[in-house]
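Give me the fold.
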Amino acid sequence: MNILEKIENHGKMQGDNIVMEYGAEKLTYSELWEKSDRLAGWISERLGDSKKPVLVYGHKHPMMLVCFLACVKSGRAYCPVDISMPEQRIGDIAEAVDNDIILGTEENTHNLKGYVSLDEIDRISKEHTPVDYSKRVSSEDTYYIIFTSGSTGKPKGVEISLENLNNFTDWSVSLVEDSQEGCHDEMRDINSRKSQLTFMNQAPFSFDLSVMDLYTCLAMGGRLYSIDKKTQQDPKLLMDELRKGEINVWVSTPSFAEMTMANKEFNGEEFDSINTFLFCGEKLGADTGKRLQELFPNSGIYNTYGPTESTVAVTGIKLDDSLFGKGDLPIGRPKPGTEIYIFTEDGSIAKEGEKGEIAIAGNTVSKGYFKNREKTSEVFIEDNISSFHDSKDSDETKKAMMYKTGDEGYISNGLVYCTGRIDLQIKLHGYRIELGDIESNLKFIEGISQACVVPRRVDGKIRNLVAFVVETSDANAPRKTYDSSTAFQKRKEIRDKLKCQLPDYMVPKKIVFVDSLPMTINGKVDRKKLEAMV
């Protein structure tokens, strides 16, 4: 069964079970299926022959799930947009998608065109004639589009098909099932008293990590327990919410777990319901993995890896004592249906233990970037080497593709290791960021002629971003100098302008004014020198 058929089956067999809970808001499986049927009928009627993707705006409201399924059932991809995104970013996404409507579960504070309010969505989902989705959805159809940071200052939309999602969830479900099998006897007794597993939803739906908790949960008939940004930032509120949620499957970035572990209450005795930890989105440090294992000795802890372009994650490994004390943790072995290759600078396949660029082939590799052939052709290349390259249809448009990740890594004893980025893309707190995106937006600000953004690392891990800026000035003018008060005000003005263009996590924590940027012998900005300065 594909993911839609599984959700439909849960709606019929366990319709009264809660599928999602957020604060006082709850949604059952039968409500999810029936409401999305009716909303899909309305979308089809409203948009007619247009198959443009539909934007879904909100944060954690359960009706977002109804909107997601309704879009897909109507034969259109959905594109999640979180309320934390600035107006300019939302505008860029809307322009790229060229949307006709936006389904909104929050107040329309940005005066977005074609906005359909929560009250209207609720009314439609109760009254409209439903649609037969089976005639509208094929495995190759784009299921969702998630926008990621782009080097030009404009975000790129990654298209993920129903087939991609099915193949990913088949694997992610197997990880959870493996963890349940390996549960300690006492923990298994606790779980057996529950009719369904509860998955924690930490990430916003516009971040592809959320696909791991949302669709693994839906595939298994689980309960999704959402924790909003405000609660995540308050240690006491977070502990209270985690207790209330009785979480079984924890899905987050390592950074979120590190923040939570700072609270002494967070351990396996206090939170004995948590039996599985799934990490993705950024590097899991060996120290973090070891400490978590000590705090939750009876839980399964999994380190997974993958970019948005290959449907969340493609490698994984369950942590055990044998992996510690040997440096970096591996990101695991490829999931079924995936092959990992390491390419050296000259394009040849790397030898055992030799570093190079990680490339991914297989059944979860994306179609590419939405309406962006140029960017797609740069990183999605024809697959001529994997076991999948001759398995596609002879039709030229259906050739198997491979995704070049831009990540550096190597393979040793069958395990894949990721050692960092080979380009200007980084991950900070789980969010993928193109440094060129921030730099482009800095240079859009009047008075700034050059900009370079570098990460600040502590103990090998990226903690925040630092921007070096060169102000526009007359060649014959004397060097600009500022007293501390003026410099503080100018930095604040720059940060405030960036916040109108970029999400908070992309705004540099520190801004440094310099007369010029250091250059390499090849005439490029010497980023390593700047990074050494921070």
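The radius of gyration is 24 Å.
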